[in-house]
Structures are given as C-alpha cells and as structure tokens.
Specification:
heterodimer; A: about 300 residues; Multidrug efflux transporter AcrB transmembrane fold; 2 domains; about 10% strand; B: about 425 residues; alpha+beta; Alpha-Beta Plaits; four-stranded antiparallel beta sheet; about 20% strand
Chain lengths: ~300, ~425
C-alpha cells in the first residue's frame, strides 16, 4: 500500500492551524464575536413586507422607536426583513413596531413571520449551561478513551478536540457569523464527529503498534492513516453531501445552521489526520525517549 | 441452499420496504391503525410554528412559599391557555422561579401572549335569579349580584370539618369580612332566593356553595364532597384569582406557521436529495455491499422515526442536526466494514471468510467510536436543556439504530447475498 507521509511534517500542519487560530483570535480581540441575541439578550423580528424595501427606508419608518437596530433582508426574494436590536422589547412594544410597518406597507397580520426576545440575564445563562455541558461531555469521553486505549490517545484526542473548537471559533470570528444556539449545535456536532473520526484512526494505530514492533511511532501513525484514508474520505464525503444539501436547499434559518456543521465536519476530519495522529506520535516519541534515558 | 438464501434475502428486503411504506403512508388493519410518520411525528415549535414564552416571577419568596406561588401561577396560566382552545399547550415550571409556556400552532401569537399576561377576575356572586349556579358553566347562565372580588380574600386553604372530610377554608380581609357579612345576610334574609353563592373566575363558575348562616367573623368554609385534591385545587384557584406575582417576560420565541413550514419543507427536500446522493455514491463505490448498505440505511431511517414517535420525542432543528450526525455515523459503520472487507479479500481470503473477519475486526472500531459519541450524547442530555436536549435525543436514538442496522442487517444481508454471486469484484475488490 502506498504510504502517506503526514505525521513527520507535523510542524507544517501545526503552523497552518496555528495561523488560522491566530487570525481568528486577533479578529476576536479587535471586533469581538458577533453574538446573537440569544447570548446577549435582545429582540429579533421577522416581517414579510411583500416587496424589497431599502434598509434605510425601514430605518426611517421605525426611527421613532430609537432602536439602534440591525436590519437585514431575508426570504427567497429579499421581501422579508429581520430587525434585530440589543434591547429586550416587550410584547406590546413589538406589536407597536409591527403596527407602524403594517400601516406603512398595508400588510396583513400574517406578515409578522416571527419574533425572538431574550432578557439580558438569560443569554449568559444559556451560554454558560451549554459550555458546561460540552466540557463535561469532553471529560467523560477522555475518560472512556483512556480506559479503552491509553491516556496518550485520550490526550491527543482531546487536544484535537480543543483545536477543532478553536478553529470553529476563528471561522465564526473571521466570517462574522452570528454566535447563537446553532453555534452550540455546531460545536456539539464537531465534538461528536471529530471524536468518532479520531477513534477510527487511533483504533488502527492501536492495532499496528502491536503488530509492527520495530517501526517508529511516526511510521506507525502514517501507516494507520494510509490504511484508513479511504474510509475517512468516504465517510466525510457522504456526511458533507447530506449537510451540503441542507445548505443548498434550506431556507435561511436552516442555512445558518448548516454552514457551521459543514465547517465542523471538515475540520473534524482534518484534525483526526493532521492534528490528532501527529500529536499522538509526538507524545509517544517524547515518552519513549525519556524512558530510554531512564534505562541508561 | 442457494435458493433458500436468496429467498430469505428478498424476504428481509421486502420486510424493510414494507416498513418504509408504512412509515410514509400509514396502515390500517381492522382496529389497528398506524398513522403516517408525517402526521404522527411531534414537531418542535421551531419547525411547525408557535410561541414559547418564559416568564420569571419577580418575588422575594423562597423555598416552599415560592414553590406554592409558582404552582398557583401555573394553574392560573393553564386556565387562561385552555380558554384559547389550542391543541397541546405545554406549561412547565423551570428552575425555581420560572414558568415556560409553549403554544404550538397558535395563529395570532401576539394576542395569545397578551391573554396569558392579563389579570384575572375572581368574584363571589349572590345568585339572584331562579336558575341555580352549576360548577363549570359560564357565569352568563345565571343572574347574580357581586358580593366581593378576589382582592378581598386574604387566604384560602384546605382543612377538615368535624367529620374529617376535606373542606376549603376562606379568610377575608377587613373590607371583605364586612362585604361577606352583608352578602350572607342578604342570602339568608331572602328565603325565596336559594342562598347560593357562585364563585366565578374569569367568567366561569368554579364553585357554587349554599350558605345557611350569616357569617360575620370573616371566616368561612366550603363543604362538599371534596377529595383532598379537589379541595386543594379550588383553594388554589380562589387564592390565585389574580396572578400572585408579577411575571417578567424573559424569553420569547414566536415562529409564524409559514416560516416554520418553509423550514420543514426545505429540510425534507434537502434530506431526500442528500440521501439519494449518498445511496448513489455507496452503490457506485461499493457495488453489492453498497446496495445492501442502502437497504440497511432505509431501515435505519424507519427505526429513527418510529423510535421518536414511540418515545413521544419532539423533532426540533437541533434534532435534525443530531440525525444528520448519526446518519453520518451509520454510513461510517458500513464504510468501515466494507473497507475491512476489501483488505481481507486482498490478503487472499475467500469471500465468505473475508466477510467474517472483516466484520469481526471492524466491530471493535465501530463499538469504540459509537460508545464514545453515545457517552457525549448522554451527558448532553443530562446537563443540557432545550435545543441541546433535542440534539442529544436524536443522536442517541440514531446511534443505537445505526449500530443495529450496520451490524445485524448489513451482516445478514451480505452473507445471504453470496447466493447471487461470489465474484469478489462485485464486493468492491479491485484485485
């Protein structure tokens, strides 16, 4: 079988990932993340105006409310607008705003397509609970892998996992994607997918370590990656095809949801080959060198 | 032997096809009816439209007092929601001081929120007409004269009468004591009138006791054939005529029915296209095993939807993500096995031996990766809430059904398929 040389060039892969994460971090520090209203508190209203209306015009129409709102177009023909504001508006206030637009553009009641409102405190709470769940889940997975494989595998898998989450955060920062509840779903998918992928490769490494006693850890890792590469590519492709069709055919809310999943699966696949395996080989290499010194 | 295997193969395929047919179209045999999945599946508000409102009680109360207040609030809100005549409203207490109201498929969401938040009116009315008041009927069925309102009642609770039967005890405030004294006097003084007092909440008669004495000390009991439960319910309703605490709207989500429907339609279309592409890919790449994997995936999809219906789980958008992830893992399990199969064939083993050892060696990988993901899903289910729970549920169901279909169905069908052909080429081997 043709062998792929991946793990020896770990410096290259680590630099690529490091660069992406660095750019993401710098942008995050400069601009902050684009938090959605479910994480900051605020109000979102989606209204069907029946025609494309300029954002500036809508701003004038609702100027009296002094909302300092973000207004974007939505819907297949940009006939809808989404009005987002950091202020948490009550039901009565939302109805007032809608009534003004209703009178201005002669709308029916059904034109009010949807609204979301989050109080300021609840945003932080949702965010913290979600983070806690993800952290506990990661620890539990680390424990399981440590028991089934060994601690070094577990460590490498979790390092890859942290890498994935950082990359995803950077993608959100770079593309100014709204960090909201679908972000959490994306993180969860990444965690699940990345672990799944990493384990498939590690399982082969575990097998090859026993069989190929004379080879270095880097060689064993490369060999295992080569043996599983068809499976890795096929699985990623099929999953990407399913999510990709959600992205292509979905309405805006589904699309907003599918993009981070697409990125998550791609990053999860990348990290199982280019991050998790080299990290494992590197850690093992260091440990065995230390053991060799100790033996002298 | 070969003929028997082929027959069995087609029998299993026919069974799976039948299951899929039932899932799509439903089935009625005599009294046994299975609804089509499209009708039976409970859809989350983010898909089918509706309102979710979370209120937080603004109160200093703690512990048992707070719990009592929240329970009252829930009862009152339930009554108001029921007035709206919606199907399947869900009202739950969240944490210590929050109440979550879900109204699926409500037409005018903004009005509904208004009705929930309004102040209710509790009245004690002296029945003045010839028609007696009957519990559960609207107040418009009787003639009455208001004696006092809910603001004059200081407490209502369950106690026992001299026969140890549960009764509802009422206590009035100073103004209420006077008003009730006047009211009962009027009831007794007019023997031609029945002496009946109707307790009316939001226009509905919730109790209709008769008074036989004039009550002047501001304390009254309502006797009747109460169970402890029913007495407690009545006490709670009287106590809570008005909402006992101020509620602040801390989270609202209104999804218009058309918006939700757009999401669902496009998600279904996308899923169909995606699945067809996956099936096409598997068949081209893996030949006979690819066809078998597609059959197994069909069963996997059926198991997921029937399990969701069986557990009464609700499908939400994050739930869709969970299904997509587990679908990926289901395909993965098949791919892992088929790749192992190819390796085994390459090492010169017979097709039958390759299938056995391919499965044996692939299983360990599949179990480890699925168990790890299952652990993650379990913890997300235990610690997460709302969208995270929805994700975890579909992921767990998906993992279990993908293990079952990949391991049992794929393996069985692969072995039976040896009846058609034993050419390794048709099993993906290039050698």
């Amino acid at each position: 079988m043709r062998n792929i040389n991946v793990t020896k060039r770990y410096k290259l892969w680590f630099s690529i990932s490091g660069a992406i994460i660095l750019v993401g971090l710098i942008i995050m520090l400069m601009n902050g993340l684009n938090f959605g209203i479910d994480f900051t508190g605020g109000t979102m209203m989606q209204i069907d105006l029946g025609k494309t209306v300029e954002v500036s015009e809508i701003k004038d129409v609702i100027a009296d409310f002094d909302l300092n709102a973000d207004i974007v177009h939505a819907g297949a023909e940009s006939n809808e607008v989404i009005i987002k504001t950091k202020a948490s508006l009550s039901n009565t206030e939302r109805i007032e705003i809608f009534e003004v637009l209703k009178a201005e553009y002669g709308l029916a009641d059904e034109a009010f397509r949807g609204a979301e409102q989050f109080g300021p405190a609840i945003g932080a709470e949702i965010r913290n609970r979600a983070l806690l769940a993800v952290v506990i889940a990661s620890v539990a997975m680390l424990l399981y892998i440590s028991v089934r494989f060994e601690t070094v595998f577990g460590l490498a898998a979790v390092i890859a996992l942290i890498h994935d989450v950082l990359i995803l955060l950077s993608i959100y920062a770079i593309f100014r994607i709204s960090v909201n509840s679908s972000f959490i779903a994306a993180i969860l998918t990444i965690v699940g997918y990345s672990i799944n992928d990493t384990i498939v490769v590690f399982d082969r490494v575990r097998e090859n370590v026993k069989r190929e006693k004379g080879k270095s850890h880097f060689e064993v890792a490369d060999m295992s990656i080569s043996q599983t590469i068809t499976r890795t590519i096929n699985t990623s492709l099929t999953t990407l095809v399913v999510i990709g069709s959600l992205f292509v055919f979905g309405v805006s809310s589904i699309r907003e949801f599918a993009f981070p999943l697409l990125a998550g699966v791609a990053v999860g696949t990348y990290s199982s080959i280019f991050i998790a395996s080299p990290v494992w080989a590197l850690l093992r290499h260091k440990i065995s060198r230390k053991d060799a010194y100790a033996a002298k | 032997m070969k003929g028997k295997n082929t027959l069995l193969f087609f029998l299993i395929v026919a069974l799976i096809a039948g299951t899929a047919f039932v899932a799509v179209n439903g089935l009625t045999i005599g009294s046994l009816a299975i609804e089509p999945v499209g009708d039976a599946m409970k859809l989350g508000l983010d898909i089918k439209g509706g309102v979710v409102v979370v209120y937080e009680a603004q109160t200093e109360e703690e512990g048992a007092d707070l719990a009592r207040t929240m329970e009252q609030t829930k009862q009152i809100i339930s009554r108001r929601v029921n007035e709206l005549g919606l199907t399947e409203p869900i009202i739950t207490l969240q944490g210590d001081d929050r109440i979550r109201i879900e109204l699926p498929g409500v037409d005018n969401a903004q009005d509904a929120i208004d009705i929930i938040g309004k102040t209710a009116l509790l009245e004690f009315g002296l029945v003045t007409g010839p028609v007696p008041a009957i519990e559960g009927l609207p107040a418009t069925t009787i003639d009455y004269e208001t004696i006092l309102t809910g603001t004059n009642i200081s407490d209502a609770f369950v106690s026992q009468d001299e026969f140890n039967a549960p009764v509802v005890s009422l206590e009035f405030d100073a103004v209420g004591t006077d008003l009730f004294f006047e009211g009962t006097k009027k009831a007794i003084d007019n023997p031609d009138k029945s002496g009946q007092i109707a307790i009316i909440l939001d226009g509905e008669i919730i109790s209709a006791p008769y008074t036989r004495i004039v009550i002047s000390d501001g304390k009254a009991i309502i006797q009747g054939s109460f169970s402890y439960e029913s007495a407690n319910n009545l006490a709670m309703l009287i106590r809570g005529g008005a909402l006992p605490v101020q509620l602040d709207e801390i989270q609202t989500s209104v999804i218009g029915p058309t918006l939700g429907l757009d999401s669902l339609k496009s998600a279904i279309n996308a899923a169909i296209v995606g699945l067809l592409l996956v099936v096409g890919f598997m068949i081209i790449f893996y030949r006979i095993p690819g066809i078998i994997a597609s059959i197994a995936l069909t069963l996997y999809a059926c198991i997921i939807v029937f399990a969701m219906i069986g557990f009464n789980a609700t499908l939400t958008l994050p739930g869709v993500a969970g299904i997509v992830l587990s679908l990926g893992m289901a395909v993965d399990a098949n791919v892992i096995i088929f790749e192992r199969l190819k390796e085994e064939m390459k090492s010169g083993k017979s097709l039958r031996a390759s299938i056995d050892s391919g499965f044996h060696r692939g299983m360990r990988t599949i179990i480890d990766s699925n168990v790890t993901t299952f652990i993650a899903a379990l913890i997300l289910f235990a610690f997460g809430e709302g969208p995270i729970k929805g994700f975890a549920v579909t992921l767990m169901i998906g993992i279990v059904s993908s293990m079952f279909t990949a391991v049992i169905i794929t393996k069985t069908l692969l072995k039976l398929s040896l009846g058609f052909s034993d050419r390794k080429k048709l099993y993906g081997s290039r050698g």
